[in-house]
C-alpha cells in the first residue's frame, strides 16, 4: 500500500500545488514559470518512487519549459523531442516507461508550436498521458495534479474563450 505522507508523496503534493496554480493562469509566461517549478518538484518525487524514466522526463520538461519562455523555435522543440526519445531508449525498461516520454513529446510540441488555447489543449493531452503513468507508479500527488489540471485547463480555456468573444 502506498503511504500518503512520506517524503516522496509530500514532494508530489508540492508539485500538485504549483501545477494547479500554473494552469489557472491566463498569461502564458506565468503558466510556464509555475509549470517548470511543478515539474522540478515532480522530478525529485519520481526518483524517490524509483520511476527513473518519469524523473528524467520531468527534469527535461523543467528545462524545456524554462527555455520556451524565451525561445519558441521548431529546432529547439525538435532538440527536446530527440533528447527525450534518446534518453528513453536508455532508461525505459517497459512499455509503461514510454508514457512519460510520450507525454514529454506531446507537451514539447504544445509549448513550442502553439500559444493560448491550442497550447492548453496540447498540454491537456500530455496531462492525460501523465495521469495514466501516475496511476501506474503510485504517485498520489501526480494523479491529483493531472486530474485537476485537466479540469482547470478546460475551465481556463472557457475563460480565455469568453474573454476573446
UniProtKB/TrEMBL annotation:
Pfam families: Imp-YgjV. Keywords: Membrane, Transmembrane, Transmembrane helix. The chain crosses the membrane at residues 7-24, 44-63, 75-92, 98-123, 135-158. InterPro entries: Uncharacterised_HI1736/YgjV (IPR019629), YgjV (IPR026267). It comes from the Bacteria. This is Membrane protein. It comes from Vibrio algivorus.
Amino acid at each position: 500500500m502506498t503511504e500518503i505522507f512520506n517524503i516522496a508523496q509530500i514532494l508530489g503534493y508540492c508539485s500538485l500545488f504549483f501545477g494547479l496554480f500554473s494552469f489557472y493562469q491566463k498569461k502564458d509566461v506565468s503558466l510556464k514559470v509555475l509549470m517548470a517549478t511543478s515539474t522540478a518538484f515532480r522530478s525529485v518525487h519520481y526518483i524517490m518512487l524509483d520511476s527513473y524514466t518519469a524523473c528524467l522526463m520531468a527534469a527535461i520538461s523543467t528545462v524545456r519549459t524554462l527555455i520556451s519562455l524565451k525561445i519558441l523555435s521548431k529546432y529547439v522543440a525538435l532538440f527536446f523531442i530527440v533528447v527525450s526519445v534518446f534518453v528513453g531508449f536508455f532508461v525505459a525498461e517497459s512499455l509503461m516507461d514510454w508514457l512519460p516520454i510520450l507525454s514529454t513529446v506531446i507537451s514539447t510540441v504544445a509549448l513550442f508550436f502553439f500559444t493560448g488555447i491550442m497550447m492548453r489543449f496540447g498540454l491537456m493531452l500530455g496531462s492525460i498521458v501523465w495521469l495514466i503513468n501516475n496511476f501506474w507508479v503510485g504517485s498520489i500527488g501526480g494523479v491529483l495534479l493531472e486530474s485537476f489540471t485537466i479540469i482547470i485547463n478546460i475551465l481556463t480555456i472557457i475563460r480565455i474563450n469568453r474573454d476573446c468573444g
